[in-house]
Amino acid sequence: MDGGRHPEDRSSFWKKNSKTVPGRPSPKKDVKNTHKMRSAGSTSFQDFQASVSDAWDMDDDEFCIISGTENMKISKKVSEAAALNVLNRHRRLENILPTTSNQSGDYTIDLTENDHFKQKFPGRPQPLKGSGVNSHEDCESKLERFEVLLAGSPSLSELCQLSWSGIPLKVRAITWRLLSGYLPVNLERRQDVLDRKRKDYWSFVKQYYDTERDESYQDTYHQIHIDVPRMNPSIPLFQQDTVQKMFERILFIWAIRHPASGYVQGINDLVTPFYVVFLQEILPDGETFETCNVDKLTEDQRGIIEADSFWCLSKFLDGIQDNYVFAQLGIQRKVNQLKELIQRVDHTLHKHLIQHNVDYLQFSFRWLNNLLTRELPLRCTIRLWDTYLAESDSFASFQLYVCVAFLLHWREQLLTENDFQGLMILLQNLPTQTWTGSHISLLVAEAYRLKVMFADAPNHLVIHSAKS
Predict the structure, then answer these.
(1) Residue 190's closest CA among 203, 176, 174?
(2) CA–CA distance, 50 with 58 (Å, rounded to integer)
(3) Cβ of 219: how many Cβ atoms within 10 Å?
């Protein structure tokens, strides 16, 4: 996973397989492997890894440390109810505080008013009228509020609050530019900044990409050139030569400008949401991005998509830079924190995973490295990133709670699996193919609830050595 290293210098993070797409689980193959491995009595992750085509970094396998903590859990019924309450009522609430667990061991929460809460959590969900979360009237009303706000020089906090629960397609591109910090909120300055930054990007391309490359960057280019064709194999858009060339330039220039990390496999997936959003801004109404022929766009249109994707990616990754430096220490910390949170929130699930030799690193590294882009349909990823961008400076910590909520969502299925192979096959092939924006809305609401309950708890990420 170290950026800039030749793939032959060490084992590559993505396992190579000419018949499958690296990093993308193959359900049919996995099913066969499950029966084969169960009959052989295999119980180690190394055996499992050898039988599937996916992305693991074996150098980090010894990272996670198991520790004891309080036996707490949240029932599915209370969890879903609280998540809906966050979506439907949260804007009127100024504070949410956890109480002690009830007789069944489930958490309850008290609702009080406190201005400090509003300041600490700026990206708060907006209230939804009635029960029709996705109703036409609600979407039209929300679009109107966005258009009024964007017509002037909006307060960034107002824009975050409105964006947290999802951004209408028509205004998503301009809103993402603002939320990422690429575009200034001052209306009069926006076009000048856009013109200058787009010109700067193409100057970088001319200086670093279109000329003979420094020998020290050859390995970086080689790895990017390998990874880009593997992206989103089921979507025709990303199989086009023009699109792949655009991605290569974006990633190479980003690596040049970020020598502390260089290119790390997985960053290529993080370009796709920005690319699609800026492509959708140009497409006529009713045309889907999946089958769009980018060669039919004008050169200026392609140039805008590429430059804006580069700058928004750069701004977005600035807040999680330590995820991609040598040894990816930021992700390692988050994996440990994820383990500690699950251990406290749902000890039964945590114990089940540990008893069957499932190390959190083995499944959550990819979640954190790729920000769930490989676990969700692309349209769901874009909806999720509406909330990520609205979290602003709090995104790095919020994403951890999204991963916690994502794991807890599959609790019942995971508890029915009684061996290592079954658990890992499920964790690699979580059935999100039919997910929609409503699933993401519930996911981020549950993540928000968990964050509010645990973010200020002084020991929620502390290893309790006395109980180890």
Answers:
(1) 174
(2) 12
(3) 18
The full DSSP string for 310-324 is: HHHHHHHHHTTGGGS
Alpha helices in 131-238 (DSSP H): 136-150, 156-163, 169-179, 190-204, 218-227
Helices (H), 26-104: 27-40, 45-51, 76-89
One-letter amino acid identity for 303?
Answer: G
CB 185 within 8 A of CB 150: no
pLDDT in tens, 143-156: 999 999 999 888 99
Reported as a single tens digit per residue, the pLDDT across 273-330 is 999 999 999 999 889 999 999 999 999 999 999 999 999 999 999 888 778 877 788 8
Burial (CB count <10 Å: 0-12, 13-18, 19+), residue 412: exposed
Distance CA 434, CA 274 (A): 22
The Cα-based distances of 62 to 180, 217, 360, 362, 423 in angstroms read 35, 31, 11, 11, 20
The DSSP letter of residue 189 is G
First to last CA, the chain: 31
For residues 94 and 272, what is the distance between their CA atoms, to the nearest angstrom? 36
Rounded to whole angstroms, how far apart are CA atoms 156 and 183? 11
Report yes or no on whether pTM surpasses 0.90.
no
Alpha carbon of residue 301 to chain centroid:
27
- According to DSSP H, which parts of 323-465 are helical? 329-345, 347-355, 360-369, 378-390, 395-409, 411-416, 420-428, 437-454
Helix residue spans in 327-372 (DSSP H): 329-345, 347-355, 360-369
Instruction: Name the residue type at position 39.
Output: S
Cβ atoms of residues 460 and 344 within 8 Å = yes
**Residue 61, both tokens:** 């396998």
At 254, phi and psi to the nearest 5?
A: -60, -45
